[in-house]
Design a protein that fits this description.
Helix content: under 10%
Order of helices and strands: EEEEEEE
Radius of gyration: 14 Å
Low-confidence stretches: none
Number of strands: 7
Distance between the termini: 13 Å
Oligomer: single chain
Strand order of the largest sheet: 2-3-4
Largest sheet: 3 strands, antiparallel
Number of helices: 0
């Protein structure tokens, strides 16, 4: 989990992403039983990337890591069935009930 009402991550081919600097990893399993591996900063605990067995060859990077307020808006919401319904979403965001 993210510890938040939602997370906003950009997905890239893993071959296009280079992560440098000190980091730690946390491995877990999702509800499906598939592996999820997360990288985080050992100093402040900020999540910096994740890889999921269900998304082979893909790496997710939290959009906040880019420090770019003009970063593209999200196009999909996974696990929409568990969202906080007080959050008003734009109508063009695709709602995917699970993942």
């Amino acid at each position: 989990g993210t510890g938040s009402a939602f997370s906003y991550a950009a997905l890239f081919p893993q071959s296009m992403v280079t992560i440098s600097g000190e980091r730690r990893q946390y491995a877990d399993r999702g509800e499906s039983g598939r592996a999820i591996e997360s990288d985080f900063c050992p100093t402040c605990g900020t999540a910096i990337a994740f890889r999921a067995e269900g998304l082979p060859g893909v790496i997710g990077v939290p959009v906040g890591c880019f420090a770019d307020p003009s970063f593209a808006r999200p196009s999909k919401m996974f696990w929409a069935s568990r969202r906080h319904h007080w959050l008003d979403l734009p109508e063009d965001i695709g709602l995917i009930e699970t993942q």
